[in-house]
Amino acid sequence: MPITRRAVLRHAAALPVGAALAPAIIGRAHAAGMTMKLSSSQANDPKFANGRVYYDYLLKALKANGLDGQITVQFFPDNQLGQEIDVINSVKLGVIDMMVSGTSISANLVPLVGVYDLGYLFQSYPQQTKALDAGAAKPVEDALLKSANIRLIGWAYNFGARSVLARKPVHEPADLSGLKIRTLPNPIITECLRLMGAAATPLAFGEIYTALQAGVLDGLEHDPPTIVASKFYETTKFYSLTEHIYSPLVTYFSDATYRRMDPKLRDGFLDAAHKAALDTRVHGLAVEQEALVFLKGKGVTVLDCDKEAFRKRVLPQTDAFVKAHPDAKAIVDAVRAASA
User: Fold this and answer.
1) Containing domain of residue 35, as a range?
2) Are 38 and 100 within one domain?
3) pLDDT-derived band at 1, boundaries 50, 70, 90
4) Do residues 85 and 263 lie in contact, with contact meaning Cβ atoms separated by under 8 Å?
5) What CA–CA distance (Å, rounded) separates 251 from 238?
6) C-alpha distance from residue 133 to each of 122, 150, 180, 191, 306 (Å)
7) Which of 195, 168, 160, 169 lies closest to 305, judged by CA?
8) What's the predicted TM-score (pTM) here?
């Protein structure tokens, strides 16, 4: 079952003085098995929020592998363990065991990961899978493990391509001029939106809704189910299908947790994590269209736009990234080959 912040605090308050960081709370192995913490920035929505969907599939896979009594995963949605940039650093340090998020946040630790956020690099999620399986995943997996002590143990999809939700219709780059559009605190995505024409505004996920309410933002870019799950449609009513980024969704796993796992449990756990990612892929592809229908029902105008005009403006970003990060060339080549 999902764990709330209140429940954690109530549990901690009941412990003796000095025992608030007991092994059962921080996810260390103990006599009854092993307990791990899984963090997500998204809402606790079992249909439209990718973190919760992945968590539910993970529990099913652990049970199928006979591990539900030996490995307990506690789920913390809604930034309960902190903003994503803090959580990813905690995963690096082994303070938090797992995190479900896009690849974008880890580019702050290992710049090479930013290759997946290049605008209009991917054309679809099936193309992304083909590219990852053909070798586009391994360089990033190796770099994160070597430089950040983080393992990528599951590759899924965010629930649809990232598009622009704004206060006014956006059909072409000129329509974005002057609009403050929230991006992830990630220089690659920020640059992508700037090239598209927006006043790109990095902001933590947990601060978006109030910034939209206050008029600090004119919009954001994200996939349809995330917009539904976080109710951003309540303040912003024009969704333009720019589809500028097809973001991978990954399971980050602390290498410290990996190394302290009982080897007898480790293989079954990693298999369950992989299966959960595959199930989350299927769910995400199906729920994207359902989310668009939901948004229309809530008064959001869903718009087609001149994607080719946006793509041409963003195209130089890839060449500049490869020039700055030569090790990204093999990844970009694999992605482009997958579209052939």
Assistant:
1) 5-111+124-158+249-287
2) yes
3) very low
4) no
5) 31
6) 14, 20, 37, 28, 31
7) 169
8) 0.84
